[in-house]
Amino acid sequence: MPRRPGGASGRRGIDPPDAGCQERLRRTAHSAWTRVHDGPYSPQSSPREDPPIASRLPPLRGLRAFEAAGRRLSFTAAAEELGVTPGAISHQIRQLEEFLGTRLFDRQHREVVLTPQGLAYLRSVGEAFRRIEDDTRILFAASDPTTLRVYASTNFAMRWLVPRLPRFAASHPSIAVDIANPIGPPPALHPRRFDLAITHGPAPLAKEAPARLFDGRLVPVCSPGFLAGHPPLTHPRQLDPDRLIHSRQRKGDWRSWLRLAKVPEIDASRGIKFDDLNLGYIAALSGMGVMLFFANLISEDLRAGRLIALFDVALTDEPDWLVYATPAPERQRATLLFRDWLLAESQTPR
């Protein structure tokens, strides 16, 4: 791609051609255009003289390298993600900086830091890539009206939905389910993005009334192996604060539960901490300690004896799990079938 004048490298751009040269280039381009289209040149059929959009856009490789490096704040991590060398990432970003005429990173001894211009540009580029990804997924799904686009959080999908999907597939083999679980709060719900969404509490900006799946109460659970290797737990005051499993996604759960159980003297700040709720679940399943988890999401674990619910105290002020149906017209029947199946599964003991 040609360099723009005044880029970050400080090199001078190519001098523009004189008027005679410009006229020769125009005639050559017109002649080539008429040969391609098998017709004589005429003023009415002349191509537009505005430069094509591609010539005004930055290099795609540079954008991909910049987005990955900016998101990871590491040229090495970006290189691993894109399957190239760190040197290639550095080169592509320098080309992008020259094209834009500004620095995007401050390159320090062992790290790179986004400049203010780079931070602002990263937001724009990242959002553009996300929109392309979303629209691509929508186009692929739209080509098959029997593919349902379903939003569900990772916790719900892993603990409750995915283990039950084989039963739905056996009953409705012509309906495929595409589950998306982006990080963060539920996205805006409309037919272009999702046919159905399962949320913990009301979805933002939802226009349709949801159906209630089940409550969101939290109960303390542990594995049989943990109980076998520790003193009996018959009362909440016997809980070891160093064996409380926490998720940083849900700070304050243990403090609320201990207050409800009338044992506020137990230090809720101690224990084993994880960033992700599912890591805490795996830790509890592996016998590391006691965790508060959504009772209805682990109902099969409780019935199978993989986990044991302790005491008769539950946090019941959590929002319900809800189902929103927002289907595109061509998928309405399949969406309502899936919603009704979800509601039936929530009422069926296994």
Automatic annotation (TrEMBL):
Transmembrane segments: 279-298
One Pfam family from the record: LysR_substrate
Domain HTH lysR-type, residue spans: 58-115
Stored InterPro entries: LysR-type_TF_proteobact-type (IPR058163), LysR_HTH_N (IPR000847), LysR_subst-bd (IPR005119), WH-like_DNA-bd_sf (IPR036388), WH_DNA-bd_sf (IPR036390)
Region Disordered, residue ranges: 1-57
The UniProt record lists the keyword Transcription: yes
Keyword list, A-Z: DNA-binding, Membrane, Transcription, Transcription regulation, Transmembrane, Transmembrane helix
Record bears the keyword Transmembrane: yes
Taxonomic superkingdom: Bacteria
Family: Belongs to the LysR transcriptional regulatory family.
Protein name: LysR family transcriptional regulator
Species whose genome carries this gene: Plastoroseomonas hellenica
